[in-house]
Amino acid sequence: MTTGRRRHTAQNPTGGAVRIIGGRWRGRRVPVADARGLRPTADRVRETLFNWLQADIAGARCLDLFAGSGALGLEALSRGAAHCTFVDSNSEVLRGVSSALATLEGSDRALCQAQTAERFIAGCVEPFDLVFLDPPFSDDLLVATCRQLHDSPALAGHSLVYIESAQSAVTLDLPLAWQPLRQKRAGAVHYALYRCTTGG
Question: Which residue of 40, 42, 77, 191 shows the fewest CB atoms closer than 10 Å?
């Protein structure tokens, strides 16, 4: 099963590359693997998200689950995150992220793990400050992954979780202890930011 960023279309609308929109690598374009359904988070959504995160991103330890193109994790590193772990079960897609990191000279602040999100979370022993969670819309993985995250050491009381989904955040059965901070919609994509008031 591929856990890259699948959406409703089969073609990649980015033209084979994703543009980093802020920070140290601002304006740099990195290749995106030619994988069916792969569609990085749109520029306008990333810009809004990182405006939300501007006070929290510096020095953060990040986790980009269902990493796909790695657009969210790369943006975080560009803007001063201390480290990002990229997880995707599609090893070809993840090699693209690794290559992008090498090109940007950011490999020393990153780790790429070719495995399912479920398996990765099960093996976590330390919390992340910020988790990007954008599973394939068609695979219905979001709620189950959120619950697994909440019950694992991957989250602590200070952790932030960003989610993208095909449904409004208010309709999702997320852990009750997750405090909604921000939410918005861009076309068919709903996105929201939560703080975990408990965790682990």
Answer: 42
